[in-house]
Amino acid sequence: MARQSISLTEPNDEWLKNQVESKEYSSKSELVNDLIRQARKQQIQVNWINAKLEAAEKSGFTNDSKEQILSRSKSLLDG
User: Fold this and answer.
1) Tens digit of pLDDT for each residue in 17-55?
2) Angle formed by the axes of helices 10-21 and 28-59, to 10°?
3) Which range of residues forms the domain containing residue 28?
4) Does residue 29 form part of some domain?
5) Domain total of the chain
């Protein structure tokens, strides 16, 4: 595992210490790795949403009503 040296602001360092002291995590390293994993998952979701938005923008506009769009969306979700 790669070792890193990082500088933290005082409030962030205190928050990390509190999380470890409350036994949520066994170390600051474990907590930082968990936060990075969460950020990576979130970025994957953001990228997926952006791709869907880009595809929707490229597909053009519709004259369907809100109700028609909602109905079609629900039917696609229901399988």
Assistant:
1) 999 999 999 999 999 999 999 999 999 999 999 999 999
2) 110
3) 10-59
4) yes
5) 1
